[in-house]
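Give me the fold.
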Amino acid sequence: MANFNGINIDANVEESTGEFIVLPAGKYKACIVSDEIKDNRAGNGKIWAIKLQIIQGQYSGQTLTDYINIVNVNLKAQAIGQGILKRICNICNVQFPPTDTVGFMGKPMEVQVKVEEFTSNTVDDNGNPKKLKSNKVSGYSKVSTAEPAQKQETTQSAW
């Protein structure tokens, strides 16, 4: 019998089937549903980890995570990350620089998603490194407010 005592299990974790879905590359309507500021891997900077949920279409309900450099020793990486933060502020009508992230939550935006392939540290049945795919958010934009062109029906009279 396994004993979970002393293990830090998050009581608020979302239920999961364990299935991992790689979304096809494209644009998706999404919103930020959770976020956190945390240390980068090197421990010398801060990243903003945002969880995005697809809110429309076939993949509605699926989530993606994006990691945005906010403070980084590489000033170019920091400028790119802070520029993305500014873009998201503009999309969500949040003053830049923000004091917190409350104003981002649940606001619809369009995210450009791409598929990246990589080689894992695990091997397949033949001993070869497994080739895997994952998603990466490659851009943010405002949701298009243009309504799709309405189909005009034509009727013919039978005289």
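Confidence is low (pLDDT under 50) at residues 148-159.
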